[in-house]
Write a structure and sequence with these properties.
about 100 residues; alpha+beta; 4-stranded antiparallel sheet; 4 strands; about 35% helix
């Protein structure tokens, strides 16, 4: 077996993995539930994963591709989602842990 037969598929998997982003997706409060559900379905259909769902606001966290972001942005012209990188946010300065 040639090394290229093994390495090329491996590089393809690495490229796919690096194309995924962890994001928070939030919709306006008046967004119909069907639009939010269609967004989740689009993420899953493109190989993404819903990692967290929130009930107080129309929001969820996901790992998804740029293709999925484009898709969910095009689902509704009147109810556009806010898509931002999923990250830790604090309101106080945190001191480094002592070792």
């Amino acid at each position: 077996m040639k090394p290229t037969n093994v390495l090329l598929p491996l590089f393809g998997l690495l490229a796919f993995a690096s194309a995924q982003r962890q994001v928070m997706i939030t919709y306006p409060h008046d967004t119909p539930p069907s639009i939010v559900e269609n967004a989740k379905k689009a993420i899953l259909a493109t190989g993404g994963k819903i990692t967290e769902e929130y009930s107080l606001i129309k929001s969820f966290a996901a790992t998804l591709s740029s293709e999925a972001i484009d898709t969910i942005n095009s689902l509704s012209s009147s109810h556009k989602p806010i898509v931002e990188d999923d990250q830790i946010v604090t309101i106080q300065k945190q001191e480094p842990l002592e070792q």
